[in-house]
Amino acid sequence: xxxxxxxxxxGKLLQARGFKVTIQKLDPYINVxxxxxxxxxxxxxxxxxxxxxxxxxxxxxxxxxxxxxxxANNVTTGRIYQTVINKERxxxxxxxxxxxxxxxxxxIKRRIKLLGTKNRFDVVITEIGETxxxxxxxxxxxxxxxxxxxxxxxxxxxxxxxxVPFLSATGELKTKPTQHxxxxxxxxxxxxxxxxxxxxxxxxIDIRKKVALFCNVNLESVVQSIDVSTIYEVPILMQKExxxxxxxxxxxxxxxxxxxxxxxKQFLKRLKNPKHTVKIGLIxxxxxxxxxxxxxxxxxxxxxxxxxxxxxxxFIHSEDITDSNYVxxxxxxxxxxxxxxxxxxxxxxxxxxVKYARKNNIPFFGVCLGLQCAVIEFARDVLELDKAHSTxxxxxxxxxVIDLMEEQKGVTEKGGTMRLGGYPCVLKKGTxxxxxxxxxxxxxxxxxxxxxxxxxxxxxxxxxxxxxxxxPDTYLVEIMEIPLHKWFIGxxxxxxxxxxxxxxxxxxxxxxxxxxx
Length: 517
Ligand code: GLN
Description:
Elements: H1 3-16, E1 21-27, H2 39-42, E2 46-47, E3 53-54, H3 57-65, E4 74-76, H4 77-90, H5 100-114, E5 123-128, H6 138-151, E6 159-163, E7 166-167, E8 172-173, H7 176-187, E9 194-199, H8 205-215, E10 222-226, H9 234-240, H10 243-250, H11 262-272, E11 276-284, H12 294-306, E12 309-317, H13 326-330, E13 335-338, H14 347-359, E14 364-367, H15 369-381, E15 389-390, E16 400-404, E17 419-427, H16 432-437, E18 441-448, E19 450-452, H17 457-463, E20 466-470, E21 477-481, E22 488-491, H18 506-516
Glutamine binds next to strand 18.
């Protein structure tokens, strides 16, 4: 439906008017965080600088607003219950029956208000996952009802996103689903202030009037959100619909004039008028669901725009790549990205893709598991360690070039126990990585258990693959590259999480630049 993009777009407009804005996502499922979810379930797991494993919508928030989010920006039902149950065990509610209302709803309200304390933000946008009417979302709806009552009308704004289906047989747009879901909200005590209608055709004034009348909102509060070619167009569309003006009025904020969107529009202009086109292969094992690699895909688009280049991403399933077809399958790609991932499935296809890129001097970018595959391939083919592998895939390999981190060895629990969040990386002078970043030290986000085995570093460097980024505290390898190759870099961290519209990630920018030339 696009709640995340709408939230991010409203956030962007308010921010561009000078307000301090953050966006938060409440997810009504029982997992404590999405870190334990398969990407097929819920798309990519997004990692914040403070090491929280979060919903992919936080990626949109950061890409649009360009400011970091944190653990507080994503709360699930699992986390809410965990907090309440822990308190119950400690005796904090001694003598009382612990119930959904008020204890769960109080905890939801506390989490919503948390980001607004200490005057850090003028506006906190809270996006509630799933759909009105779901059993899971009921406590959230009730918490919102109470918050409006407690905080007052002028401090709260409820935006409801609905779908207006188009029936091609009769050529009609149907507003019934909108009327119905508003009715459900009303039954729960909430009158939405703004309705955003997702539609593939323009809404006529008559349709808008009908929705306004039946759903009890002002005409200017019926906003259309029409399909567009890029999500980055949505803030501009929402501005045309005056969503920001409506929000400012309702919240009684001081209007500081129109939003400053010049840099954003500049980005869009370059995105829509490319001088080049480049085809990049993205090799992964969850390619059926493109949301699994959302941040990488968006990073490639950002980097494309800054290079005046349209990036065509070809998603290739690593399990489809075999010894007999890889040359044919990868032919014509101007750059190859090997995606992050876990476990054994599709690993051979990823290693073959590295080999193809390395031997044919095609720009290669390996991210996390992608770096690990590059290391394995180099060890086997150049260092002639035939059985080299990661101990994640082959526990008994005689050449564990990728091995479990020391501090991971005793870890048995899966949730939140990886090496997570921001760690520093010092760049080696004269390398491609250093030239791309143009600074000495960077902070990048992590999500992994395995690492390059430093025991082999000398052999790698002598044979032509060097460590161009190192963690200054632990000496863990962060970046490997092949200086004699056109552009061959593998990173242990996830640069894709920190690429934003106005600040595309330097490594992606440099990678696309090399792929064009
Ligand atoms: N499975 C690898 C590890 O845990 C890589 C993880 C990733 O690609 N995010 O180290």
